[in-house]
Amino acid sequence: DRVAVKVSLDGGNLWSEPVPVQFEGLPAGFQRPFDPTLVVLNEDSLRMYFSASAFLPKRGLDSTVDMHSAVSTDGLHFTFEPGPRGNLKVKPLIDPAVVRFGKQWHYTAPAGAPQDGAHHFVSADGLKFDSIGRIGSDQSHNWTGNFVAVDSSELRFYGSGQTIWYSASPDAVNWGPYQHTALRGGDPAVVRMGDGRYLMIYVGQAYSTHLDPTGEFKVKIWLSQVQAEDWISVCSTLDLTGTEFIIADFSGRIIRRGILEKMPSNVHVGHLA
Questions:
Q1: How does the average pLDDT of the chain come out, rounded?
Q2: Is the pTM higher than 0.85?
Q3: Which of 92, 97, 129 lies closest to 112, judged by CA?
Q4: Category of 160 on φ-ψ map: left (φ > 0), alpha (ψ -120 to 50) or beta
C-alpha cells in the first residue's frame, strides 16, 4: 500500500521489480500518498502529483484529501513540496491528472459519477492551481485517467468507460468527440514513444496469450555446462524455432537477445556475469 516504481529500458517489454518510493519532508501524521501521476520538469527532474491529507480521515476519503506534490531527480527519492496544489474544501480530490501544455499547467480530477465530468484547474508554475470550472461528460465516459500531449497543437485525455477512450483538444478547454479504443479497462496512462507508437498501461482483465496454459504445452529452461562453458538450455513440447529470447538482469536491463535456431536449443552465456 505504497507508491512504487517499475522501470523499463526496452520500450515497455520488460519491467524491473517494483521499488517503493521514498518521500522526504512529509509532515508528521501525514496520510500516505496515493493516486500518483508524473510529469517531466526538466531533463533531470520529475514532479509527482498525488492525493493525500494532513491526517488520516476518520470517515474515509473526505474534503481533507487534497492534491500535493513532490520532486525528484532519480524517480525514487522525492522531496515533499509544502502546501496543497489544489483544494475543493467540500469534496476530496483524488485520481489527479496533470500536464504542462502550452504556457499553462492543467490539472483535472473526476468530479464524482461519470456524468459529473472532471474538475479543471490551471497554473502558471505547476504549484499554485486555480479552478476554472468543470469539463462536461456523460454516463458512459469517466474522466479517470491521464493526459498525453501528442504535439504542441493536440492534447489528449485517455479515460475509462465500457472501453478505454480519448478526447482531443487544441487548448485543454474545448474537447472533441470521444474516440474509443478496443481495450477494456480503466485508469489508463499513455505515453507517445519516439517512433510514433503509443504505450498504454491500464487496469484490466488478464489477457490470454497464444499459448494455452491448460493445454499440453510445456517448456523447460536450465543452466548447463558443456566443456566447462556455461549454457542455457531450452526444450519444449512446442517447436519454438525462430522464437526471440531475451536475457535481462534483475534491474530489467537487457544483456542479451537472440533467436532460438532449433529445438532443443543451447544459448552460450559463459561471458555473462
A1: 87
A2: no
A3: 92
A4: beta
